[in-house]
Amino acid sequence: MTDETTELTEAEVSEQKAVRLAKRARILDAGGDAYPVGVPITHSIGEVRARFEGLEPDASTGVTVGVAGRVVHSRNTGKLCFAALQSGDGSRIQAMVSLAEVGQESLDEWKELVDLGDHVFVEGEAITSRRGELSIMVNRWQIASKAVLPLPNLHSELSEETRVRQRYLDLISREQARNTVIARAKAVASLRDTFAGHGYIEVETPMLQTMHGGAAARPFITHSNAFDTELYLRIAPELFLKRAVVGGLERVFEINRNFRNEGADSTHSPEFAMLEAYQAYGDYHQMADLTQELIQNAALAVAGSHIVTWADGTEYDLGGDWARLSMYESLSEAAGVEVTPQTPMAELKKMADAVEIEVPHPLPGKYVEELWEHYVKPGLERPTFVMDFPVDTSPLVRAHRTKQGVVEKWDLYVRGFELATAYSELVDPVIQRERFVEQAKLAAKGDLEAMQLDEEFLRALEHGMPPSGGMGMGIDRLLMAITGLGIRETILFPLVK
C-alpha cells in the first residue's frame, strides 16, 4: 500500500471509495465492527512519547501499551508492516505489525483492510527500532473507524480553498492549523483570567434582537415564527451590556459571536467573535490600559513572550507602553494642513479630491477618518492608540471633556488593522436620544448602517448609568496580531460560499 496523492480526480476518489466500502463490508461480513463503540486505550500517543523519548536504538521497555490514532503513513513488506499513527494533537508513533507477533492471518488482514486515514487501535510493547524510532511492537490490533474517503498527500500543501472548506483535512495534515486552534484557546483563556484579576464578571446577552444597535453596521435579518416578528442577528452586544451596568453589574464582559451583513476580506468576516467589556467609573484611558494588558497577557500565553513570531517568520513586538496619538493632530501633521473639528466640509472634500479619495457619506467626520487612513495609518508600525474621533461618526460616545467637536474614543491599530476600540461612554439619556434621532434621519435617507432609535435602551439609561468606559476587540483579529495569519485562518470554520 502506498500514500495517496494530493489532487485526486473525482473518478479516482469514487474508485477508492468503492474499494474502501468493500473492505468495510468484508469486516462486517466476518462478524467484525468497522466502527466499534470503543477500544481499550491505556495511553495516549503523547503520553507514550513523553515517557519513552530518548531511548537508545533497538531498545525494549518491557511495558505494554494500547494506543489509537489515524494511519497517516503505511509501508507493507513481506513479514513486517510499518504505520505512523497520529493523534489529534499531531503526536505520532510508529506501529510495527510483524508475522512473529500477530500471526499470518492477522498480518494478512492488516495488509488487506487497513488504509491511510483509518483510525486503528494497537497494543504491544513500547520499543525503539534499529533506527531509534519510538515504536509499538504490535501483538494485537483493531480498526477503530474505517475511512471510506482517502486522505490528501500529507507531504503536499493543501490549496487554500481546501483548507477552508474542509478544515478537518487541514487539521489532520497541517501542524500550523492545529497550533492556531490551540493558540486561540490559550488567548481566550488568558483574556478571561485577566478580566477575573480585575474583578470583571462574564455575562451573555441576546444573539437575536428586535432592534439592531451598538455599532454602525448592516444587520442580518431573520423571522421568528413563534413571535411572528422580524428579528436581527446582533451586530454588537453593547446596548445589552450597558443595561447590565445600569442594573449594578459594574464590571462586565462578554466573548461571543457578532454578525454583520457586509463584505468579507483578509480582515473582515460576516460572522466573527467579539469581546466587549464595560467598567463603571472608568473612561477610555483606563480601557486603553486594560486593553494593552489583555493583549500582552494573551501574547505571553500563546508565544511565551511579548515578541511574537508570525507565520512568515517576522517578529513583532507587542511589549512596552503603546503610543497614544490624536487623530486630528496626526492628520494635520501628515497632510501639512491643519485639520480641526471646525474645518469646513468644502475644505475636507477638496483634500479628499486631491488624493483621489471617494467618501460616499455626508458626514464631515467620515472625510476626516478616510483622510487619516490615507495619510497616517500606513506609517503605524508599533501598536498605537488613535485618540479622539469626530463626534458625528460616534453616536454612542461621550463628548470630549476639553475638546469641542470630538469624542473620547480610541481605535487600536496593530499590524496595520484596527484591533480594538474603546469609549468614554455616553450615559446622558437626553443627548443619547438626540444622537439616535440623527441616526434615524440618516436611515431614512438610505444609510443601511445607521442605528435605530431604541426606546428600551433609552429607558434603561433614564434610570441612571454611572460614568463608564467600554471596549470592544475582535478575537479573530487578536489571533491575527499574535500569529500573523489572515482572518480565515484564525477562524476554525469560516463562512464560505
UniProtKB/TrEMBL annotation:
GO biological process per UniProt: lysyl-tRNA aminoacylation
Ligand binding (Mg(2+) 1): 411, 418
Entry note: cofactor: Binds 3 Mg(2+) ions per subunit.
Keywords: Aminoacyl-tRNA synthetase, ATP-binding, Cytoplasm, Ligase, Magnesium, Metal-binding, Nucleotide-binding, Protein biosynthesis
Essential cofactor(s): Mg(2+)
Protein residues bound to Mg(2+) 2: 418
CDD domains tied to this protein: LysRS_N
Reaction(s) catalysed by this chain's protein: tRNA(Lys) + L-lysine + ATP = L-lysyl-tRNA(Lys) + AMP + diphosphate
Domain Aminoacyl-transfer RNA synthetases class-II family profile, residue spans: 189-494
UniProt-listed Enzyme Commission number(s): 6.1.1.6
Record's subcellular location: Cytoplasm
Gene Ontology annotations for the cellular component aspect, listed alphabetically: cytosol
Record-level Gene Ontology MF annotations: ATP binding; lysine-tRNA ligase activity; magnesium ion binding; tRNA binding
InterPro entries in alphabetical order: Aa-tRNA-synt_II, aa-tRNA-synth_II, aa-tRNA-synth_II/BPL/LPL, Lys-tRNA-ligase_II, Lys-tRNA-ligase_II_N, Lys-tRNA-synth_II_C, NA-bd_OB-fold, NA-bd_OB_tRNA
Protein family membership: Belongs to the class-II aminoacyl-tRNA synthetase family.
HAMAP family in alphabetical order: Lys_tRNA_synth_class2
Subunit structure: Homodimer.
Name used for this protein in its record: Lysine--tRNA ligase
Organism of derivation: Ruicaihuangia caeni
